[in-house]
């Protein structure tokens, strides 16, 4: 893999690329704007025209396109959310919807597209590129950090810090009142956000969909010493944990330990927004430049990832089908430290 991103005087001619599209899709994630900026400016530096596709695949179907010049992406690197907006489109899941999207891309003269989103967005891109002659390159933008083939997805670090800030505040109340707080964080299928925020906040128990054993930990924790009303506890739960999120867990804990003062806090959408961290901006910028590089190299259906700090290219079919594994070491550490 090249680690230099030179401006290539002859690249548009060589690759046949003239105009690329860029869009954000699925849930918004902080750092998406930094990626849009990097894609736009790296493309312009390589003499490509850039079109912003608004509202994800739905905007593609409806031809909701805007030209992006360098000035249009000025002053956005520090903004959360996405200036192109995002959407979930059921119509794009149908062959008819993708046909409409293809016609709009053709009409606008778009030769290739950078998609910033999660595994659903990449699955859509892969399907469309198998049906029509269009190249997609993906940038992983999701706060879940659950994509296979990359150590890092854009927005994860910002979301992690938002969770840690919120839980630190809740801890103050938990300690002051001797309460047990069950805190639910985002992650329908992935527990990485819950796991790392739990470690960072010194949570007593962390419940994630990837590990059933953690429920034994919860039992041990509750049976152990929480009869003592002086003590408090933080239990982190990923929303997708079985048998349910924070409300279900709280119901069970209250039933089995009616003497405990148990409260629930569902952090919800405060986890998604906000100004991206420096790392989210830097990684989004590197990935944006690498995505344009990949298109100039005639790559298609690949996701840009980071592996031990290095930019890598991961085929979409691997990125969307395989799971990002959970670090067992962190679970062990958490268990050991909660004595
Ligand atoms: P997040 O991780 O934030 O949820 P995501 O990219 O996984 O992001 P999804 O809602 O799963 O978010 O997917 C975004 C959009 O991609 C969908 O609304 C749909 O338009 C398209 N998409 C998802 N799966 C498919 C599929 N199997 N076929 C065609 N299009 C799809």
Q: What percent of the residues sit in helical stretches (DSSP H or I)?
A: 40-55%
Poorly predicted parts:
none
Into which percentage range does the β-strand content fall? 15-25%
The total of helices stands at 12
The biggest beta sheet, please? 7 strands, mixed
Strand order of the largest sheet: 3-2-1-4-5-10-11
What do the pLDDT scores average to? 92
Distance linking N and C termini: 46 Å
The helix-strand sequence is HEHEHEHEHEHEHEHEHEHEEHH
Work out the radius of gyration. 22 Å
Shape field: elongated
**Structural class per helix/strand content?**
alpha/beta
Name the ligand types: adenosine-5'-triphosphate
Number of strands: 11
Give a structural overview.
This protein has 339 residues and is an alpha/beta fold. The protein has twelve helices and eleven strands. The strands form two sheets. Strands 3-2-1-4-5-10-11 form a seven-stranded mixed sheet, sandwiched between helices. A four-stranded parallel sheet has the order 7-8-6-9, with helices on both faces. α2 links the parallel β1 and β2. The structure holds adenosine-5'-triphosphate. The site of adenosine-5'-triphosphate has 18 residues, from α5. Adenosine-5'-triphosphate binds next to α5.
Task: Please specify the SSE layout and strand pairing.
Blueprint: H1 11-15, E1 19-24, H2 32-45, E2 49-53, H3 56-62, E3 65-67, H4 95-107, E4 112-117, H5 119-131, E5 135-140, H6 156-177, E6 180-185, H7 192-200, E7 205-207, H8 214-225, E8 233-238, H9 246-256, E9 262-266, H10 278-296, E10 302-307, E11 310-315, H11 316-321, H12 328-337
Parallel strand pairs: 1-2, 1-4, 4-5, 5-10, 6-8, 6-9, 7-8
Antiparallel strand pairs: 2-3, 10-11
Helix pairs in contact: 2-10, 3-4, 6-7
The chain binds adenosine-5'-triphosphate.
Adenosine-5'-triphosphate binds next to helix 5.
């Amino acid at each position: 893999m090249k680690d230099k991103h030179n401006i290539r005087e002859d690249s548009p001619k060589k690759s046949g690329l003239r105009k690329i599209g860029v869009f954000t899709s699925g849930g918004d994630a902080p750092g998406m704007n930094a990626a849009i900026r990097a894609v736009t400016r790296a493309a312009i530096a390589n003499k490509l025209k850039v079109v912003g596709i608004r509202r994800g695949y739905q905007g593609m179907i409806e031809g909701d396109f805007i030209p992006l010049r360098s000035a249009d992406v000025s002053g956005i690197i520090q903004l959360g959310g996405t200036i192109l907006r995002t959407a979930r489109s059921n119509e794009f899941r149908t062959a008819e919807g993708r046909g409409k999207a293809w016609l709009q891309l053709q009409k606008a003269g778009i030769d290739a597209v950078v998609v910033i989103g999660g595994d659903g967005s990449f699955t859509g891109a892969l399907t469309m590129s198998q049906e029509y002659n269009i190249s997609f390159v993906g940038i992983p933008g999701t706060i879940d950090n659950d994509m296979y083939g990359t150590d890092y997805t854009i927005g994860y670090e910002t979301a992690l810090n938002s969770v840690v800030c919120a839980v630190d505040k809740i801890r103050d109340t938990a300690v002051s009142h001797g309460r047990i707080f069950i805190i639910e964080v985002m992650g329908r299928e992935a527990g990485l956000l819950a796991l790392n925020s739990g470690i960072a906040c010194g949570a007593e128990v962390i419940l994630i969909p990837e590990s059933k054993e953690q429920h034994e930990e919860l039992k041990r924790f509750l049976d152990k010493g929480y009869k003592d009303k002086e003590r408090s506890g933080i239990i982190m739960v990923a929303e997708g944990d079985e048998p349910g999120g924070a409300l279900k867990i709280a119901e069970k804990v209250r039933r089995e330990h009616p003497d405990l003062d148990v409260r629930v806090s569902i952090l919800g959408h405060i986890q998604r927004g906000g100004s991206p961290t420096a790392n989210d901006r830097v990684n989004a910028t590197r990935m944006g430049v690498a995505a344009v590089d990949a298109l100039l190299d005639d790559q298609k259906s690949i996701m840009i990832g980071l592996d031990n700090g290095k930019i890598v290219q991961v085929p979409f079919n691997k990125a969307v089908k395989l799971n990002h594994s959970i670090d067992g070491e962190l679970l062990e550490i958490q268990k050991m430290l909660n004595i």
